[in-house]
Each structure stands twice: as structure tokens, then as C-alpha cells.
Amino acid sequence: MHRGPDRKLHLGVMAKYWTSGQVKTRLGATIGMCQAAQVHRAFCHHLAGRLATAADQRSFVVSPPERQADFRTSLPPGWQIEIQSEGDLGCRMQAWFAGGAEAEGDRVLIGADCPLLDGSVILQTGELLESHDVVLGPAIDGGYYLIALRGPWRAEYRSLLEEMPWSGASVFQLTCRRAKEAGLRLATLAAMEDVDTIKELEALMIQLEQRSGDVDCRTLRRSIEQVISQRGMG
Length: 234
Prior knowledge:
By secondary structure, the protein is of the alpha/beta class. 39% of the residues lie in helices and 16% in strands.
């Protein structure tokens, strides 16, 4: 399956700025808030490089607004910076999917919690959107690491994002059910693990070691090792 040349794909990465105590707090409770924020920073930089050629258009969808310039200067070329809207996670996601000059194209939205995601996943997602309305990448914790919608935005998509128990373990299953009830064609990707806890970080380090022949994975592993080594240094 291949995408038609007339269908554009826009990739968005939702991410908070790496301020200590504001990101990855569950991980920070174990390794320290400053270290957890730096792990998040490493994930953002890794994904920005890893996905530098994925999709026709790429954006980091960021918060808080006053950190826009910091994101712009710290990420590689080829990435636009968009500001997250107000409201809960569902409101912010809906605003991104429904708004903007390019909203008529197909859109893929991920977070920065799944650093093993690569361009092949985005390519597969884009191909699935040729014949599906919704693509979900299930996370092992019961949520999802990726959601993609075939453009343009439609009213039927609202039920996927409104009044959702985002912190619960039923988000993926509930989203699938709502998609079916709305008559939307749904495809799912392989399950992957978000990295929010020390156990998940340790599992990631093992996987990165297994991929040591990959320069990007080797660099990310070294970055995380350096962060962890700073624990307790102030």
C-alpha cells in the first residue's frame, strides 16, 4: 500500500518543556526531578532527529507558550513549533487535529514518551490512513502512544477525545469502542511501551543496548547514562 501524492501527512509531537518538577514526575520520584526532566529532554531531541524526514510536515506542539523560543533553538531544522491550546489533554489534541492551515490533510499525533518509535511507524500510519479513518498505537499501560486521523476533521472524531479518562488504563479500549460506535474505520499498530517509570526506563536501556549498532539508539543510551550518573550531585 502506498499513499497517493495528493494526500499530505502532518506529524505532531506533543511535548512540555523540560523544566524540573514539571515533566516525568513519576520517574522523578525515583531518580530525581532534575534528572527526569533531562531524560525527557533527551527523548525530545532523539525523536526530533529520528523523525526528521517523517511525514510531509513536522511540528512540535509545545507548552508552556513562553518556552516556544527555547524549543525552536534546541531542535534541529525542519520542525515547526506550534503552541498547545488551553484545556485538558483531549481539548488540546482536538484543537491540533481540527485547527491550522493544513488541517485538511491527514494528521498523526504522538507524545515524547516512546523514544523507540521511528519513521517506519509514521510511514505505516500514513499508509493505513489511505483506507482507514483512525489509526491507534496501543501503549502497554492501556493508553496509546499514537493517534492519527484521516483529514479533514469531522464531527465524528470528537467522541474519541472528549470526556476521556486520560489517566486511566482503559483509554485505548474505550477509544476503539467509540470509533466503532461512530462508524469510523479503525486500524491499530503494534503495542509499544511509554517510559514514565524507573521500571520502564530500565527496560528501555536494555532495548537500546540491543540496538547498539544504531547510532541514534547508542547516543540516546549514553545521554541517559550521563543523566543517571548525576543523581545526588545537587
